[in-house]
Amino acid sequence: MDEQRSAVGDDLGLGLRVPGPGRTDRLGHTRVHPVTPLIHAITAIPVIVFALIALAGPLAGEFGSWSVLGAIGAALAGCAIVLAYSGLAWRNRTYWFDEDGDFRMDSGVIARQQRRLQLSRLQSVDVVQPLAARIFSMAAVNLEAAGGSGARIQLRYLPLDEARELRSIVLARASGLDRESGEAPEQVIAFVPPRQLAVSLLLRTSTAGLLLLTALVLFGTVVTEGWGGVPLAFVTGGIPVLLVATEFMKYFNFTIADSTDGLRLRFGLVQTQTRTVPVGRVQAVSLVEPLLWRRLGWVRVQLNVAGVGDGDNNREEQVLTPVSDRATAAFIIARVLPGVDLDDLIWCMAPSRSKWRSPVQWASLAVAWTDVLFASRSGRITRRRMYVPHARTQSVRLTEGPWERTLGLASVHVDSTKGPVRITGLHLDAEFARQVAFEQADRARDARATDTGVRRSGDAVGD
């Protein structure tokens, strides 16, 4: 029996350890771990309990203690239904590599479907551990290819070591490398201490502004109306506290490691995630500097990754580091955008008349370019510097609003892939803006023609 299973494991071509009994069929298709239905049931418990508490309240006055017993019974029945359905889904969910080397997954109970993910179009492979999965040392593997939300596979759940190994195999196959087992070696190059993360979130412009508003509301209501306005302060103060707590748990113990696959990001408190940022997939980056961070020399690095952010379930911010000093940020950016020097820039400022269009940030508006990249900057309270390599430029646009035309101004938009980074030279002199737009279009065309790395990066640069 062991010999038969080993042979089947070899036919899989996964290069993984042989799965447990009953997980691999005669065709070489492998099921996810049998504990998966139980994890789904545990995940559903809070939702079921909350719904039953909401329903049991109105019935308590009429049925008394029987309503409590009925709620407990309904909760158990609901968990049993979820467990049974998840068990059927588990039996029908299998994965394998096909003859062409692409990743496939069968799934579905009522409606069966087969998904195929072309590894030549692979954008990212993430290993995610929700809280319920961490109890059993399980993890989900999320694979995403270029093409939007339809090109995404969620494989839930595998043992953590097996999930990491599968991610390594998929990344190696997508890169054309021969790695049959184990993760690629890595070297930690940056770590965000929890204390630094917490302080940075509290000093962020939006958080500090809401806390200041809370203090003003509390002072004003106490002075004019006594302590009756305190509940309002709890509301206005609770919003920034909730935002800080949510983001702190999300980016807790943020670690950046360098490997042959790219930059490997690990973070999370309740739900841990491991992401790999392939070097060739990064399209644009930005440095964000809130007002209260500048004296500390801190920045946040955001990025656009080809194919990530196109689907409905990828709207979250793409962060390369939630907070770091500028030297560390420059070192990390140089890893994902080789040849980019953020300090080798001569900024061309917006004209002084742009203050009538943008009175707060006009002195910060500027564009710059080198032989490698185009850059823009904006913001006075929260400064933003955006960078896009010429070869990653999707298109170039020139816009003139009614107010801008009156002042002889125009804005240049250098479009990248979808994501948080938007490269725009705001409110430049109109003639200068036209010249910049035409020259940037020429630079982008020439760079795409000579940069073979763009072709290998998939469809992100508009073939």
Structural write-up:
The chain has 463 residues and is α+β, with helices and mostly antiparallel strands. Among the domains are: 194-250, no CATH class; 278-456, no CATH class. It contains 12 helices and 21 strands. The strands form 4 sheets. It has a 7-stranded antiparallel sheet with strand order 7-6-5-11-10-9-8, sandwiched between helices. The protein has a 7-stranded antiparallel sheet with strand order 14-13-12-18-17-16-15. Strands 1-2-3-4 form a 4-stranded antiparallel sheet. α2 runs antiparallel to α3 (65-92), α6 (194-202) packs antiparallel against α8 and α7 runs antiparallel to α8. Mean pLDDT is 82; it is low at 1-15, 311-315 and 454-463.
Topology:
Blueprint: H1 2-12, E1 30-31, H2 36-63, H3 65-92, E2 94-97, E3 103-107, E4 113-117, E5 122-129, H4 131-135, E6 138-145, E7 152-159, H5 160-174, E8 186-191, H6 194-202, H7 205-225, H8 230-250, E9 255-259, E10 262-267, E11 272-277, E12 282-290, E13 298-305, E14 319-325, H9 326-336, E15 348-349, E16 366-369, E17 373-378, E18 382-389, E19 395-399, H10 402-407, E20 409-415, E21 423-429, H11 430-450, H12 452-456
Helix pairs in contact: 2-3, 6-8, 7-8
